[in-house]
Write a structure and sequence with these properties.
By secondary structure, this protein is an alpha+beta fold. The chain is 43% helix and 15% strand. It binds flavin mononucleotide. The site of flavin mononucleotide has 12 residues, from strand 3.
Length: 199
């Protein structure tokens, strides 16, 4: 897949103003090629030190969904059940192991983080959340719809999918094609004058 193929179609409307959070999906499948395309876009989200702590698990088989669904808030289960793919987003608290390659100019960064688990956890969490925003927009830019959800039992998902690893789950994102009645009406957004200061 070339960069121009990745970036040709989307418009600001398809990513922002027309797009809605999806709660119900059509049965149309999502291919592994589409999932690869999402990642190939999402990976360009900027992160501090280019640290890229986000790790994504695309749950798309019935067997894997059966492991995940009971670990979601009850009110969220039908939403994920209707999605062809559910992405588990986790922060890799051992992201620093990659720093010599992904941030080569920051000499000694891996060693500094190795000795400070607390700052590593904060860095992993903040930057994985930042990447999650980019990930949602990448889903939309790939012609699909996204339903992000924080109503999950993150610790139980870690135990089920990531036992004995440094991955810490923080949200899931339902992915597919939105059903005709698959969104709630738009709630108001804060206006420029409410959210923005021109200093
Ligand atoms: C981090 C995050 C967590 C969310 N958690 C849930 C959730 O647990 N359940 C749910 O139904 N919607 C959840 N939502 C959906 C939001 O309510 C929705 O994106 C927001 O109201 C905007 O809706 P719109 O895109 O239709 O304008 C979550 C969204 C985000 C970004």
């Amino acid at each position: 897949m070339t960069l121009s193929e990745l970036t040709e179609a989307p418009t600001a409307a398809s990513i922002f103003t027309d797009a809605h959070t999806a709660y119900m999906f059509t049965p149309e499948a999502v291919s592994d090629e589409e999932l690869a395309r999402i990642y190939e876009l999402a990976k360009f989200t900027p992160t501090a030190l280019n640290s890229q702590p986000l790790r994504i698990t695309f749950v798309r088989t019935e067997a894997a969904k059966a492991r995940l669904l009971p670990l979601l808030a009850e009110t969220n289960r039908a939403k994920s059940a209707s999605a062809p793919v559910v992405a588990i987003l986790a922060a890799d608290t051992d992201f620093h192991e990659h720093l010599p390659v992904i941030s080569p100019q920051m000499e000694g960064a891996r060693e500094r983080f190795a000795g400070n688990a607390e700052s590593r956890a904060v860095m992993a969490k903040n930057n994985a959340w930042l990447q999650a925003g980019g990930f949602i927009l990448a889903v939309r830019a790939s012609g699909l719809d996204a339903g992000p959800m924080g109503g999950i039992n993150a610790a139980a998902i870690d135990a089920e999918f990531f036992a004995d690893t440094p991955l810490r789950t923080f949200m899931v994102v339902n992915i597919g094609h939105i059903a005709a009645d698959g969104a709630f009406p738009r709630n108001p957004r804060l206006g420029f004058e409410q959210a923005v200061t021109l200093a």
